[in-house]
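so im writing up the methods section and need the NAD(+) kinase record in one place, dumping it here so i stop losing it
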Amino acid sequence: MLWRLTIHPSLFQYPLFLSYFLHGFITSFSLFSDKAMQELLQSPVQGSDHHLIEFSQTLTTSAQAEASEWKRKYELERARNLNLENRGKSCLQFQTDLDDMTTNNPTNQPTLYNETNEKSERCSRNGICSHEVLRDGNPDSDSKMIRKASFKLSWCCKGEQSDQQKHDIVSFERGNITTGERSSKQISLKWESSPQTVLILTKPNSIPVQILCAEMIRWLKQQQKLHIYVEPRVRVELLMESSCFNFVQTWKDEKEISALHTKVDLVLTLGGDGTVLWAASMFKGPVPPIVPFSLGSLGFMTPFYSEHYKECLESILKGPISITLRHRLQCHVVRDAAKNEYETEEPILVLNEVTIDRGISSFLTNLECYCDNSFVTCVQGDGLILSTTSGSTAYSLAAGGSMVHPQVPGILFTPICPHSLSFRPLIMPEHVTLRVQVPLNSRSPAWVSFDGKDRKQLAPGDALVCSMAPWPVPTACLVDSTNDFLRSIHEGLHWNLRKTQSFDGPRES
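--- predicted struct ---
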């Protein structure tokens, strides 16, 4: 039986109006209070049009229950949204609320949440979800609800999801992506218990360093009551000077070196930047905080003056101290005969840079470079430097690279004398994996060195794979990381120093 329903034009005078399909399905609905609903349903019908009377009776018998149900769900959902904002509920809990609302909706009525999103993949631990319902601020929009699309951000590395949380980098503000501030502009280290053991590493073949090392060991033992480790070479030198240094400890083999980070609370270096590099290379995993004293040439990473070592060490042992987390590169050599890229040689960690060059060959290097399996370029020239930001003031700077603050997480991609005028240096993000391969048709092999040591040959077909190591090198700051960095480039490189222009010259009129 087909019903014909005619809506009288006077009905559109009501400010709150429900539009129905002929078969009873709701197409649009405006939320209003029970009092307004009662006024609408109980108000007298003007005129004698029987169609208008029939429509009024239909509203009285069927719409009131549905409108009340809609209002109840809206209030329940609004309360849950407010509770979510106040308590800071996690994405998983919020998704559970959505599932509960779907279960409690047996009539299969549409809710204010997108049902497609209810069936979508839930937030994983390494992602961030957004499920927000926004109210249109336009007063002329009849308070209609706008569905804000839900989305998830996740971080991947070489196509695989990363377990590292990024909540300190990206956050959400009512469904919109915003960048989150770091927890602190400067990183501070505070001791939970007093340091008990220190490791002292010295620059070899230096009489002033040997004298300072002996003096520092006596003071640390007598005044600070600390346990002291030194290298085997240094211990022999100390015992030759006096037998009273027999309390100094050392190690015997590589196995004991690999366990040093479990015993040593603090590392003191007496020398230049090379001594800091040597200290970092000793630790293949976690690195204790390093306090570098300047007894070298330039001193980009050695802000402490040896003349005031007592005051400096007293302050550091007491804490808290500012530190710079210097990132390292983890490098693998993959030979052409390897069955897959995981069949590599022992990984090598570098604090400054890894350099691929042509060695003694007179031919240009020919290197194919990839970033996360995406082709970057083919390097033809003297070579290529992959540098950390701590190494940006070393070989990379001499090759035309930029100086970068050491706490900027990135990888510098700097060519050495490229055979192209348009080949400019790049800075890659820290999460990428770089692969440099010698093509099979290369005229000559290439050579790779790690922080200027451990030189290896790369034959045609061999490759070098580099990524950011998970263990940075924490170095103590004299003031803070930014102040120390700027002071080092001013004093070490005389950066932008020139004679001041005379003030008694011609002036603009």
